[in-house]
Amino acid sequence: MDDLIARAADVLRQTKRLVVLTGAGMSKESGIPTFREAQEGLWARYDPMKLATREGFLADPKLVWEWYQYRFGLVAACKPHAGHYAVAELERLLPHVVVVTQNIDGLHLAAGSRDVVELHGSIHRYKCLYGHRGYTLADLAGQTEVPPRCPRPGCHGLMRPDVVWFGEFLDQEVLGRATAESQACDAMLIVGTSGVVQPAAGLPYYAWRRRAAIIEVNPVPSELTDLAEIYLQGPAGEVLPRLAALVAQGPTAGREEKKGN
């Protein structure tokens, strides 16, 4: 494992454009339950299609709003782990780093990453049914109606989380940026994703087709492991800090670490 991490650090050290693609496994290490794992207690009896679809929201807006406020509380209680901070450190060390994440929790931003493409939106932002977006809970403070109404003058549309629900298309501008970065990178670091959710799972293929170096960090192999030049098996919170530390130390770091062992 030491040799593999040293090899990966050598690759990253030479990288001019890096894309870090992260999935649910990254968030789970911070204690954030997946969508289905959060369906416990009161929520266990509800069909996911009633909690995360436009149709479900229109049928019972109050139920869906309260479900997402519950999830917001779960996220608010969690903090970035060492892997999030290591990704932010790579941004400081390398010329161009973009984080493309499937997660809606905002933990990459909380850890200090500045260029984050949130494919599936953010649980920290809200939009109305008519598409007016960019609002936070602070913008909705003082309203007693559940869900609250759009604060834009003359709108009054129902507010909803600014996340991608089942059956919805990703924001085309966001997906376009993620695709363009994947097509232009010379290395991609894949972390904590199963590689089965599209269109995110297709992004590594853009990098692979242009012969970019692909490094995967995952406790178990994924659907994308066969694309990886280097597979680092283990939790992101353990592997990524070691990787970032070697990148920071310079090209002889791997040999020095091995000698020290």
Task: Give the arrangement of secondary structure elements.
Blueprint: H1 2-13, E1 18-22, H2 24-28, H3 48-51, H4 54-59, H5 61-76, H6 82-93, E2 97-101, H7 107-111, E3 116-118, E4 121-128, E5 133-135, E6 159-163, H8 172-184, E7 187-191, H9 203-209, E8 213-218, E9 230-233, H10 236-249, H11 253-260
Parallel strand pairs: 1-2, 1-7, 2-3, 7-8, 8-9
Antiparallel strand pairs: 4-5, 4-6
Helix pairs in contact: 1-10, 1-11, 6-10, 8-9
Oligomer: single chain
Number of strand elements: 9
Low-confidence stretches: 253-261
CATH topology of the largest domain: Rossmann fold
Overall 3D form: elongated
Q: What distance separates the N and C termini?
A: 13 Å
Structural class: alpha/beta
Question: Describe it for me?
Answer:
The protein is α/β, with parallel strands linked by helices and about 260 residues long. The protein contains eleven helices and nine strands. Helix 7 (about 105-110) links the parallel strand 2 and strand 3.
Question: What characteristics describe this protein?
Answer:
single chain, 3-stranded antiparallel sheet, 261 residues, 39% helix, Rossmann fold, 9 strands, 2 domains, SIR2/SIRT2 'Small Domain', 6-stranded parallel sheet, alpha/beta
Gist?
This protein has 261 residues and is an alpha/beta fold. It is built from eleven helices and nine strands. Helix 7 links the parallel strand 2 and strand 3.
